[in-house]
């Protein structure tokens, strides 16, 4: 963490479309989030997509957005990723990165 007390964070919701269920997408998303040092959560939907939220420093959230839209898990096929509700926050609202059910 930066010692700059005025540092702001970014929060963004996401939904990933394509072949993203049954391919360890959530597990790899958790691992990537932890590697980048962002917080958040990830969850499968009944519609066959994966949704979640990411919070952290803007540059790290941008890296995670790229990973969600272009990389994913090795067996996944990402058609597109939608990001919404992007906002600045003064402190992290989520602790760690986990899977929700």
UniProtKB/TrEMBL annotation:
It catalyses: an acyl phosphate + H2O = a carboxylate + phosphate + H(+). It comes from the Eukaryota. Keywords: Hydrolase. The active site is at residues 26, 44. Gene3D superfamilies: 3.30.70.100. Residues 11-101 form the Acylphosphatase-like domain. The keyword Manganese does not apply. Its EC number is 3.6.1.7. Transmembrane segments: none annotated. GO terms for molecular function: acylphosphatase activity. It is an enzyme of class 3 (hydrolase). Pfam families: Acylphosphatase. The keyword Secreted does not apply. Belongs to the acylphosphatase family. PANTHER family: ACYLPHOSPHATASE, ACYLPHOSPHATASE 2. This is Acylphosphatase. The lineage of its organism: Eukaryota, Metazoa, Chordata, Craniata, Vertebrata.
């Amino acid at each position: 963490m930066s010692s700059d007390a005025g540092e702001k964070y970014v929060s963004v919701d996401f939904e990933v479309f394509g072949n993203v269920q049954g391919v360890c997408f959530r597990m790899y998303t958790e691992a990537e989030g932890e590697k980048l040092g962002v917080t958040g959560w990830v969850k499968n939907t009944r519609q066959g997509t994966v949704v979640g939220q990411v919070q952290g420093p803007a540059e790290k959230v941008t890296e995670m957005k790229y990973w969600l839209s272009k990389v994913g898990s090795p067996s996944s096929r990402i058609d597109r990723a939608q990001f919404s509700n992007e906002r600045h926050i003064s402190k992290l609202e989520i602790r760690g990165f986990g899977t929700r059910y």
